[in-house]
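quick one, 291 residues, struct below
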Amino acid sequence: MHSKILRSVVAVSVLVATIAAFIYYFVTHPTVRSQLRHTSPETLVLLLLLYGGVVVAVGLTLMATLVLCDIRLNFRESLLLTMYASIINFFGPLQSGPAFRAVYLKQKHGLKLKNYSLATLVYYGFYALFSGLFLLSGLLKWWLLLIIPLVLLGFIWLNYSHSHFLKRLRQLPLRGLGALALATLLQVVLIAIIYYTELRAVDPGVHLTQAIIYTGAANFALFVALTPGAIGFRESFLIFSQRLHHITNSSIVAANIIDRSVYIVLLLILVILIFGTHAQNRLRTKASEDR
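---
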């Protein structure tokens, strides 16, 4: 209980400090305000559509993850669950979206949490792998980036007999692993396109290669984030990795203001879609029914 309270205090403190830093930076740097003024409505609409694509991609990763657990979830239910969990994850306490998703799947589909934890680790592994390749793309040749995953797979295969964890991985269906890898790659690619669009809106001189490296750095922030949408953590990762992507602080701040704003609008649209159509009733768990 005490650790949860401490974590909540830390999360709120980081969030408040980050918002204060954003406001201070925004007020004292007219370049950021100038960059934001030149963002066209068409760009904002495009970003909304792209983020909608990310929600679909995450829904596909959920379906593929559950295939590894011998559970078949139709696309409509997977998409609805993804939308609902995204809203809870951002506005709820302590990134609670994944916990809600696990509880729902356990109650409605008899999901075994042990299997789901393993499958989720595989998803995070793919996400980290692709993000790491994006981050290193400025340092390594593209042919090396293609070889690295093959070397990792070879290493894992050779160590199957020496690791209980890897033995459990071997029991997962190969078709499900391939589908999960492709869905995760689609998610990361869409995020890269979003970041590239945002960066080009505030700095037309940004190249695609810079945006790819930027995406890799930003994605790793999600693994340590305590705040909604990794606010504060993502910006820190991007500034620390500046020597790799060479994007200025003002462009990072301006692009992230656009990103947060568009994402919040998307979540509000999802709230209207879910509650306006009473779709939340399909996702009601025993805990929520008892309240």
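The two ends are 21 Å apart (CA to CA).
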